[in-house]
Design brief:
By secondary structure, the protein is mostly beta strands. About 0% of the residues lie in helices and about 45% in strands. The protein is globular.
């Protein structure tokens, strides 16, 4: 599945949910930082778990990620717009990620 990114004030973001192990392939034309954030609880805040590119000049990420206890919600952040971003998995992938839950007192 090809990921789509939305523009934020700090760069670009893509969110998705996975049901099993997956591979992530991301390419960019420009230098920048690409980070992986995850949560195992729907509606919870993300934890930044890894800088995906090995350094600021690395323009290709190709990484297999093991999901020991699915499902998992992920967020990819990038300071530059990726030219290609593909997630492959034998399991289900749902783009859109976490649904925000409001905990407002009634």
């Amino acid at each position: 599945m090809e990921l789509s990114f939305i523009k934020t004030e700090n760069g670009y973001v893509s969110e998705f949910k996975v049901e099993s192990d997956f591979n992530l392939h991301i390419e960019t034309d420009n230098k920048g930082v690409i980070e992986l954030h995850q949560t195992s609880v729907e509606g919870a805040n993300y934890d930044k778990v890894e800088m995906l590119n090995s350094n600021y000049h690395d323009r290709v990420v190709d990484k297999t990620i093991i999901v020991p206890l699915p499902p998992m919600w992920l967020k990819i952040t990038s300071t530059t717009l990726p030219t290609l971003a593909v997630v492959t998995s034998a399991g289900e992938i749902t783009e859109g990620g976490v649904v925000t839950t409001l905990n407002t007192p009634v």
